[in-house]
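Progress note, sequence design subtask.
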C-alpha cells in the first residue's frame, strides 16, 4: 500500500515504537479501561490506520472491547510480558522471531512512502489480541530500523525498562538507573 503524501516510513516506525513503549508504562497499574481505549484510538490508531481496511465502518480497535474490567489488569500484564520477552530476546541474542510471527500472522503489511522508501504498517484487524497488536508495532519498527534493535536496544537490569541508547546498552541500565550508577561511581 502507498502511504499518504508527507507520511514517511520512518515516521510510522517511530510512532509504532512510541505507542508500544507507552503500553509498557501501564505497569504502574494506572491503566483502566478508559486508558486502554484511549491508547487504541490514539497512539495505536494512527500507525494502524494506513493498512487497507478489512471492512467498512468503525475501525476494529475503536469498537468496544469485550473485556471484563476484572480481566483488564491481567490482559495488560500478559501483553507487557510478551512485549518485554520479545525485547529481551532481541537484546540478549538478536532473536527477531517476533517479526516473523507478525509477518506470518498477517499483523503487518508492506508499504511505501512518497519518497519511494519501502516499509511496513501494522494491520488493525477485528479480533486481534492486544499482544498481537503490540507485537505488530515492534515488528514494523524493527523491519524499518533493524540497526536500533541489533545494536542499540537494552533492557535495564534494575527495572526492565527498554532503552534504545548506546550508553544504556553498555551499562545494561535505563537512563534513570544509568544516572544513579554514575552517582555511585563518583561517590566511590
Ligand atoms: Zn531502570
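Output:
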Amino acid at each position: 500500500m502507498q502511504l499518504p503524501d508527507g507520511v514517511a516510513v520512518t515516521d510510522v516506525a517511530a510512532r509504532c515504537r512510541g505507542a508500544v513503549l507507552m503500553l509498557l508504562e501501564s505497569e504502574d497499574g494506572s491503566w483502566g479501561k478508559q486508558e486502554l481505549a484511549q491508547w487504541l484510538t490514539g497512539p495505536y490508531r494512527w500507525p494502524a490506520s494506513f493498512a487497507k481496511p478489512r471492512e467498512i465502518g468503525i475501525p476494529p480497535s475503536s469498537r468496544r472491547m469485550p473485556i471484563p474490567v476484572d480481566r483488564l489488569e491481567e490482559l495488560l500484564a500478559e501483553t507487557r510480558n510478551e512485549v518485554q520477552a520479545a525485547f529481551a530476546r532481541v537484546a540478549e541474542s538478536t532473536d527477531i522471531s517476533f517479526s516473523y510471527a507478525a509477518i506470518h500472522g498477517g499483523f503487518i503489511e508492506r508499504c511505501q512512502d512518497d519518497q519511494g522508501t519501502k516499509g511496513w504498517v501494522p494491520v488493525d484487524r477485528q479480533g486481534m489480541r492486544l499482544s498481537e497488536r503490540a507485537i505488530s508495532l515492534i515488528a514494523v519498527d524493527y523491519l524499518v530500523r533493524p540497526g536500533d534493535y541489533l545494536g542499540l536496544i537494552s533492557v535495564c537490569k534494575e527495572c526492565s525498562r527498554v532503552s534504545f541508547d548506546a550508553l544504556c546498552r553498555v551499562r545494561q541500565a535505563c537512563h534513570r538507573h544509568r544516572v544513579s550508577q554514575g552517582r555511585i561511581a563518583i561517590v566511590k
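The mean pLDDT is 89. Work on this subtask will continue into the next period as scheduled.
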